[in-house]
Every structure is written in C-alpha cells, then in structure tokens.
Amino acid sequence: MVSLNTPICDFGRPAPDFALPDLRHTPGRQIIHTPDSARGPKGLLVMFICNHCPYVKAVLPRIVRDCRELAQHGIGSIAIMPNAVEDYPEDGPEHMLQLADTLDFPFPYVIDESQRVAHEYGAVCTPDFFGFNAGLQLQYRGRLDASRKEAAPDGAARELFDAMLQIARSGRGPAEQTPSMGCSIKWRNG
C-alpha cells in the first residue's frame, strides 16, 4: 500500500463531467449520476473513496455525518470508487452496496469502472475530496480532518465540513488547505 498526499487546490477549475450509473437501481430503470444531478444549490462535494483502504475506513462515519449535515446547507455529495476491482474485489459493486446500506450513505456511491473520471479529476488517493461551489468551480482540495489510518480525536477541527460551509456561504474556499492523505488509487496496469 502506497500512501499519497493530494496536490494543492486549483481554485476555479471546472468540475469534469461524468455520467455514472447508480448501483441501486430498480428493474427497468437505471439512474445515472452526473455533477448536475448530485450537486446541491450551494455546491458539490465529490469524494473518491473505496471499501478496503484503512484511511477511508477510519473516517467513513465522519464522512457520512458531514455529508448529511452539508446537505442541510445546500451542498450535494457523491462518492466515486475508482479502484480496479479485478485486483481489489473487496471494492466491487456488491461490497459497495453492502457498505452503503450498512452506514446508510446519504449520497450516491458509484463505481468508475473505466477510471476515466478519476483521471479527469486528477484523483490520486482514497480518500480524495473535491469541493465545488454553486458554479461547479473547485474551491477545496484538502483533507476531511487530522485523521490518518486512525480517526482523529473527538473534537478535531472539521476541516472539510468548515470549508464546504464557507463555500456554501461565500462561493469561495479557504486559502489555507491541508492536503488529504490516503492509499494510492489502484490503477489498471500499474
């Protein structure tokens, strides 16, 4: 497992488009998620996560909590699983659905089978967070909080949450951002 840090925020960069199917679909009806369908009136949080990464496991309850609260402030959220499931079957769709149901995800959890979306966003690790304003311009590329492979202590600053609240209120993210750290994305062919 390789640990990586995310690059600094490229303020104002437009959200790359995507169209990824919902894993939870009703027979005869497939739901497709896009940045426009996932966004809220005040912005969008795009998260690259997976099931097996210890960095993600350490913060998943906090991600769920923060996304649930951010929705009340007009921020929509979506989680994208970018890993090559043929090499990491625990990140496969059936396990994704089980995890989403167990933790009652308040956001869609979709798979980027082609890995095109992860490449276009410039995602490098799980978790990797991209916070966009109402105009879908990038304003945050930092960490959730001080967690690493273990959850940060209770009472740790909620960096992502606070940044997204600032974006909801002003359309601008904080100038100072601490990079996220996590497991490298498991790309096909290396």
TrEMBL record:
CDD domains: PRX_like1 (cd02969). This is Thioredoxin family protein. PANTHER family: OS07G0260300 PROTEIN, THIOREDOXIN-DEPENDENT PEROXIREDOXIN. Residues 9-149 form the Thioredoxin domain. It comes from the Bacteria. Pfam families: AhpC-TSA. InterPro entries: AhpC/TSA, PRX-like1, Thioredoxin-like_sf, Thioredoxin_domain.
